[in-house]
Amino acid sequence: MSDLHERARELDAADPLAGHRAEFALDEGTVYLDGNSLGALPAHVPARMADVIGREWGELRIRSWDESGWWTAPERIGDRIAPLVGAAPGRIVVGDSTSVNVFKAVVAATRLAGEGRDEILVDATTFPTDGYIAESAARMTGHRIVPLDPADIPGAAGPRTALALVNHVDYRTGRLHDLPGTTAALRAAGALAVWDLCHSAGALPVGLDAHGVDLAVGCTYKYLNGGPGSPAYLYVAERHQAAFDSPLPGWNSHADPFGMTPGYRAADGAVRGRVGTPDILSTLALEAALDVWDGVDVNAVRAKSLALTDFFLECVRAYVPEGRVVSVTPEAHAERGSQVALSCPDAAAVMPELIARGVVGDLRRPDVLRFGFTPLYVGFADTERAARVLADVLAAAS
Amino acid sequence: MSDLHERARELDAADPLAGHRAEFALDEGTVYLDGNSLGALPAHVPARMADVIGREWGELRIRSWDESGWWTAPERIGDRIAPLVGAAPGRIVVGDSTSVNVFKAVVAATRLAGEGRDEILVDATTFPTDGYIAESAARMTGHRIVPLDPADIPGAAGPRTALALVNHVDYRTGRLHDLPGTTAALRAAGALAVWDLCHSAGALPVGLDAHGVDLAVGCTYKYLNGGPGSPAYLYVAERHQAAFDSPLPGWNSHADPFGMTPGYRAADGAVRGRVGTPDILSTLALEAALDVWDGVDVNAVRAKSLALTDFFLECVRAYVPEGRVVSVTPEAHAERGSQVALSCPDAAAVMPELIARGVVGDLRRPDVLRFGFTPLYVGFADTERAARVLADVLAAAS
């Protein structure tokens, strides 16, 4: 045990990202491994929000739509997220929930795919909301849903496929799916690739432009630390922007929103993905939160993420008797996101006890203990401690 | 001029709502008549939000979904709004933008109306986003849009009418439409009434349950003072709740959201109108803002609102030469919301000058000066001053 403890100290000392932890509000008593559900608070956000609320809303009031840049926040913040997911400026807009953006993306993709393509392939292991929304979109557009294992999507794409909706990283297992290969296979079949980046953005390079992704959505409250329920985003590849036809053409996406004309005329660019008035407090908290990414290389984040999850798995193997838990997260780096999911029959009893001892992960019913590793604020000593506490809790519960 | 000034002082002294002004962050140098666009900041909100951000997000983090009541906020806050619009508990849920809620309501109404009804009547004078979204909903459900003057909707409703989407108060003119009569006519024709309450909720009694309204939506950042882009709400009459079929069935509306099952099964009640993860910071600012309504009778608000707009029109008549501006807001109380809209050819030059002199209204292009009266914080002396400054500006611009 002390070997791994010592190793952790050395790894932390050599970690080029270690300094970022101080940018977050974290207490030493807690190992927070639930940043894949709700990212920790960047320490400078409260002061920024006090100014947004007290001065921008309280003193400037309506003038802030112009003077404080509220009106253009969705596209401005989209441009801040863009480099983290490999997109050029002007391709991402922030706003609404992930579910609402899935609806926009799926319906718009069926329209971009054109006539004669009546199938929507859906990641059968997806976070459920994507499936529910895709089903609703299919019902309204006259398409048929085909649920598939993501690995089978490239082979299943054909002349009837309009699009596939796939998660980049599975929320439950942490499995990283093959975005470049799947996207290429869909394109070869004449279909569109719609990716959900909720569990990858901010944890690993995505390369939306480079890999030719058509549309993508993601949330901002996990690895991007935007705050509870902070707005999601929508990516539209440049080649699709002129034909992007939103099912939610609210006034914020109008070419002349303050003309308030009865006829709808879509704005150019990513702005076309906007709908109604943005939730400014949540939106500006996200904008402030993104400051922690200034100067951070996503490749360095990925390297540390893999080192952390490797080390966690090594510590678990060392501390927990074989067979007591089973990792459902792939060993291969190419197939692993930034979390480790361990299954055990008594997971529902184990997780509260872990949390009571300061190791915060979460439970995915019925039997999965989920541990997310946010490289900007989780260290190797945290990781070793989490495995040690897990071993203690599992031993006590046996 | 001094007579009206004196009258204003007397009216303020006799105003039973005058004490509420102190609950808002307002400066004496400004007469804020734009609360029909963005309500003023309730003075206690910054401290509440500092706690939400610093403690609930920063310290409790993920635990706040349960322990701080984040998860149930949309329906809890819906129940706070309910008495202001005449709804029983359990019929309103907060979340998403007004535009997104219009989409939910219009699509769901076409489904509730059933087969054979292929027309959607739309208030032709509506705030444009309602029309854009209704058009999109109609395109997706195979309905036809019929734009009409709201006064003509009762007569136009017939066996082909699925629903009518109408604004309770016109955003531009401030005209109050006949909600009870229009709703009754639609019901008699077997059609549904969907009301947009953005410009009425918090300014006058609505009586959703009493008048048999089917569905309604509204924003919360105008007379409800929820903050910039605070979440909108959706009302579903009790008789429609079991059959309410949302086009945006996100995981938050699932009967067992944390079961994360692949099949969608809708929750009972207003919760069925939820979609994705709510924007907690904006949502909880709204919740705090609603405290100013504790113990306030909406009928008293309405009485003061009419007294304020009557007094403003009287002052304008006294101070501004006849014909210099023309009121496009109805004189009759039964047809007036809580704003006065004055048209003049040079409105676009007049409004910035008014704002520079501390009278904040807004411009609706091309020629409308819009002044909103929020009875909780606008007084009669404010009103007299606004008319006086308006007269000065108009005289200087002539």
Describe the protein:
- Two copies of one chain form a homodimer.
- The first copy, chain A, is of the alpha/beta class.
- Chain A folds into two domains: 2-43 and 297-397, Aspartate Aminotransferase, domain 1, CATH 3.90.1150.10; 71-293, Type I PLP-dependent aspartate aminotransferase-like (Major domain) (Aspartate Aminotransferase, domain 2).
- In chain A, 37% of the residues lie in helices and 13% in strands.
- The first copy, chain A, contains 13 helices and 13 strands.
- The first copy, chain A, has helices spanning 2-13, 45-60, 64-67, 73-81, 98-113, 128-141, 153-156, 179-188, 238-241, 280-289, 298-319, 347-356, 380-397, and strands at 31-32, 92-94, 119-123, 144-148, 161-167, 192-196, 215-218, 233-236, 326-327, 339-343, 359-360, 362-364, 368-372.
- The longest helix of chain A is centred in the last third of the chain and has 22 residues, at 298-319.
- The mean pLDDT of chain A is 97.
- At the A-B interface, helix 2, helix 5, helix 6 and helix 10 of A face helix 2, helix 5, helix 6 and helix 10 of B.
